[in-house]
Amino acid sequence: MTFYARSQTLHCGFVKGPAGSPSTGFDLEEKDKIFMNKCMIVVSSCIFGSSDFLRRPTSKLMSEYSKKNVCFVMFVDQPTLSTLASEGNAPDDNGKIGLWRVVVVKNLPYEDMRRTGKVPKFLSHRLFPSSRYSIWLDSKLRLNTDPMLIIEYFLWRTRSEYAISNHYVRHCVWEEVLQNKRLNKYYHKAIDEQFMFYQSDGLIKFDATDPNTPLPSYVPEGSFIVRAHTPMSNLFSCLWFNEVDRFTSRDQLSFAYTYLKLKRQNPDRPFRLNMFKDCERRALVKLFHHREFPSPPNAP
User: Fold this and answer.
1) How far apart are alpha carbons 159 and 271 in whole angstroms?
2) Angle at 226 between CA 216 and CA 180, to 5 degrees
3) Which segments constitute the TOD1/MUCI70 glycosyltransferase-like domain (predicted)?
4) Distance (Å, rounded) from C-alpha 240 to C-alpha 257?
5) Could you give the CA distance from residue 47 to residue 25 in angstroms, rounded to a whole number?
6) Could you state, in chain order, the average pLDDT of each consecutive group of 10 residues for the chain (300 residues)?
7) Best label site of 37, 93, 113, 131, fewest CB within 10 Å?
8) Is the residue at 12 inside a domain?
9) Angle between helix 173-182 and helix 188-200 axes, rounded to 10 deg
10) How many domains in the chain?
């Protein structure tokens, strides 16, 4: 995978080898793959390791057009499906709970449930190969706004291909590193190795006073992402996924590095990213607490 935006086949995430070859993980049933291949507009989320309750999109706020034309897909593992069923949230005969089409993932690629969740978060263009637009929603959020209004407001109106909100408190990766270590979000040695590599490869501190700063913040609130599946959007998503695959699963640490390097190496190929205010995100969704927080992986 290269940061240079040129004609190439983007291989990122997981691959399907020839018949008889071993799986690389994130296995889906054939009926689900057939359904997902037909989706043109997607709202997706995931719950792995029974880490959350299922939050149904507010149906009465969704247009009939969206109910008919937007795929609402919730990825779960088998333990989560069993937990949901025990709580009275079993899928119906069409595999749905409310608007959510529940898709069971087998052979999870990582022991770290947070890292496994990055597959549907960043690789929607691979999971839904026919889709033109996607909205990612963290499982702690309930969608209270029609998806087509979201796409119109954050992408079409601003002529953007990727939209994500700034963090509500922190704007510099240096601050985010300290906060992750303070709260023991990941073992410190891995955070330090990642951060040192990024600094050696050109990452600089965020400076709000610099008129040439390309973004209003270098730390996103990554629970809500709106995407057009354009070549530059797909490339950025693949590159960002690669960072959480090779370093820590804390994607707020790798966002700025990925964006700035992509921009630096492609001065003649604009990537139209819309970083909007976090208050706009909070106006679209209802925030809940996680059922439980997955523990960070053990140090190697």
Assistant:
1) 11
2) 55
3) 3-290
4) 9
5) 16
6) 73 73 89 98 97 94 98 98 94 96 96 95 96 98 98 98 97 98 95 98 95 96 97 96 96 98 94 97 90 62
7) 93
8) no
9) 170
10) 1
User: What is the CATH classification number for the domain harbouring 68?
Assistant: 3.90.550
3-state SS string for the chain: CCCCCCCCCCCCCCCCCCCCCCCCCCECCHHHHHHHHCCCEEEEEEECCCCCCCCCCCHHHCCHHHHHHEEEEEEECHHHHHHHHHCCCCCCCCCEECCEEEEECECCCCCCHHHHCHHHHHCHHHHCCCCCEEEEECCCEEECCCHHHHHHHHHHCCCCCEEEEECCCCCCHHHHHHHHHHCCCCCHHHHHHHHHHHHHCCCCCCCCCCCCCCCCCCCEEEEEEEEECCHHHHHHHHHHHHHHHHCCCCHHHCHHHHHHHHHHHCCCCCCCEEEECHHHHHCCEEECCCCCCCCCCCCC
In a domain, 19, yes or no: no
- Rounded Cα distance between 197 and 145, Å, is 40
Residue 108 covered by a domain: yes
Question: How does pLDDT run across 89-118, given as a tens digit for each residue?
Answer: 999 999 999 999 999 999 999 999 999 999
Residue 7: CB partners within 8 Å, gap ≥ 6? none
Q: pLDDT per residue over 272-294, tens digit each?
A: 999 999 999 999 999 887 776 55
